[in-house]
Design a protein that fits this description.
With 327 residues, the protein is an all-alpha fold. The protein has helices spanning 5-23, 27-45, 51-75, 83-97, 105-109, 115-122, 127-136, 141-162, 167-188, 190-214, 219-224, 227-241, 249-261, 265-293, 303-324. InterPro entries: Complex_I_Subunit_2, NADH_UbQ_OxRdtase_chain2, ND/Mrp_TM.
């Protein structure tokens, strides 16, 4: 199915704004790129107009505008060497990404957004802020702010997912939880966090694509769906949670090894406990959905086509982990 020319223009402009932020050499150009990113993403949220998407787009616009004001005002004082201003800029970037403790807007926003827009929100929209955070992260006060955010993301993301029944909210809290690992990788090494983010995007794309194709929005729908769909969705969620031998386990293992080598035991325990909480919920969800759906299994005429898509999903979850074993 061909994309409408206007949507293609918005997606192209969205990618262009990301490259503008990456290549900028002044905070004003960075701010312009972030604002372009906001302007071109709002129409994508409104592409399927209803009262929920209108509310979500307005909420997203207000949050992003407030974060942009924090960033541009604080950036004016960065040249004077005020370290506190770097922390304010970091806070603005964390707010833009929906990182804890500035995450409250994200779970409430996702209910009015399509799976396609969520894919853009969780993957493309975080590239620019993450790169800016990696540039700002230095020894001192910014490190302390980052550690607070890492702990908050790990716990708020895991506990929030435990109390959710909406798949979109579960994905939002999963995104918050993964942000703790990404930021921790950023503290350790640029290569580590880039590797983690790349693998995370691969697994997340696989999960969101499956939910979008099958039009799944809640745990009840997942339970009543085909048993094979439940199985693949369960494997996808377990990979997101970091269960071996799936792809999601590899980058978490790499970061865990580096944490132990650097004697960062407290952060290691916090991240590991958050991961165990997420895995507990995912495993429980898989057992319930697969067990109950076996009684409601219905074979459709399009089974062969769906099986091909699900096979591609499983390959994307497992094969990259085999590649990392040889590195």
């Amino acid at each position: 199915m061909l994309m409408h020319p206007s949507l293609f223009l918005f997606y192209f402009s969205l990618v262009f704004s990301i490259f503008l932020v990456i290549s900028a050499n002044s905070w004003f150009i960075i701010w312009v790129g972030l604002e372009m990113n906001l302007v071109f993403f709002i129409p994508l949220m409104l592409s399927k107009s209803n009262k929920y998407s209108n509310e979500s787009s307005l909420k997203y616009f207000l949050v992003q505008c407030f974060a942009s004001v924090l960033i541009i005002v604080s950036a004016l004082f960065l040249s004077e060497g005020i370290e506190m201003m770097e922390c304010v800029v970091l806070s603005g970037l964390f707010l833009k990404m929906g990182s804890a403790p500035f995450h409250q807007w994200l779970p409430s926003l996702v209910e009015g957004v399509s799976w396609g827009c969520l894919m853009v929100l969780f993957i493309l929209q975080k590239i620019s802020p993450l790169l800016l955070v990696s540039f700002l992260m230095k020894e001192g006060l910014t490190y302390k702010v980052s550690y607070v955010t890492i702990v908050a993301c790990s716990w708020f993301g895991s506990v929030g997912g435990l109390m959710s029944v909406s798949l979109r909210k579960i994905m939002a809290y999963s995104s918050i939880s993964h942000m703790s690992w990404i930021l921790m990788g950023m503290v350790l090494s640029n290569l580590i966090w880039l590797s983690y983010y790349s693998v995370y995007c691969l697994v997340l794309f696989s999960v969101l694509h499956l939910f979008g194709e099958e039009k799944l929005f809640s745990i009840n729908q997942l339970i009543l769906s085909n048993k094979k769909i439940c199985a693949v969705a369960g494997l996808s969620l377990l990979s997101l949670g970091g269960l071996p031998p799936f792809t999601g386990f590899i980058p978490k293992f790499m970061i865990s090894v580096m944490l132990l080598e650097n004697s960062l035991y407290f952060i290691f325990i916090v991240l590991l406990s958050g991961t165990f909480l997420s895995l507990f919920f995912y495993i429980r969800l898989v057992l319930i959905s697969v067990g109950l759906s076996s009684k409601n299994m219905i074979f459709a005429y399009s089974a062969n086509l769906k099986e091909n898509k699900m096979s591609f999903n499983i390959m994307g979850l497992v094969l990259p982990s085999l590649f990392f074993l040889f590195l």
